[in-house]
Amino acid sequence: MTIHPTAIVHPGARLAADVQVGPYSVIGEHVEIGEGTTVGPHVVIEGHTRIGRDNRIFQFCSIGSEPQDKKYANEPTPLEMGDRNTIREFCSFSTGTAQDGGLTRVGNDNWIMAYVHVAHDCMVGNNTIFANNATLAGHVTWATGRSSAASPACISSAASARTASAASAPCCCRTCRPS
Questions:
Q1: Nearest Cα to Cα of residue 147 among 139, 133, 159, 138
Q2: pTM here?
Q3: Known catalytic residue: 138?
Q4: Cβ count near 167 (within 10 Å)
C-alpha cells in the first residue's frame, strides 16, 4: 500500500495491500477499497463506501458523500462501486437514502468523465460511458450505454442508448422523453 504522507486515512478504513492514495486525499472510517485501485490527489472517499478492484479515481472527486436529499437523516446508507472503473476529475457520487432503496451502485468497467454527478439511489450497470458534465438525478437506473443527463425514475436500456443523439439522454421513460 502506498499512501502519500499528506493523505489522511482513517484507521478503520480497509484498503487492500496494493492500493495507492495520492496527496491530500481523505479516506473515511467506513470505506473499503479493493486491490489495484488508485486514488488520485485531493479525493475524498467517505460514508459507507465499498470500491472494488482495479479502479482509477482521478483528482478532486467526492465519493460516498451524503445525498443531496432533504429526507436524508444521517442513516448509514451505502455506495458500492464495482471493478475496473475510470472516474475522471471532479466527479461526485452520493450514498443512498433509507426511504428510497438505501443503495447507490456503480457496476464494472465504466468510463466516467469529468464533472459527472451520480446522485442517491442510482444504479449504474456495466460498460457505460458518461460524458463530461453528465448528471444522474436520484433514483436513476442506467443499464448500459452512454449518457448526457437523466431525470429521476429514469430507466435506460441498451436499445434506447443506441438510438440517442449526443445532445439528449437516451432514456425510455415518459419523464425524460414524452411520447
A1: 133
A2: 0.83
A3: yes
A4: 7
What is the DSSP code (8-state) at residue 133? E
Residue with the larger pLDDT of the pair 175 and 59 = 59
Q: How confident is the model at residue 13 (pLDDT cuts 50, 70, 90)?
A: very high
Strand partners, 128: 145
Which of 83, 120, 125, 139 is flagged as catalytic? 120
**Catalytic residue chosen out of the listed positions 121, 125, 139, 145:** 121
- The answer to whether residue 83 is catalytic is no
Rounded CA-CA distance 70/5 in Å is: 37
From 64, 138, 139, 145, active-site residue: 138
pLDDT digits (tens, 9 = 90+) for 15-50: 999 999 999 999 999 999 999 999 999 999 999 999
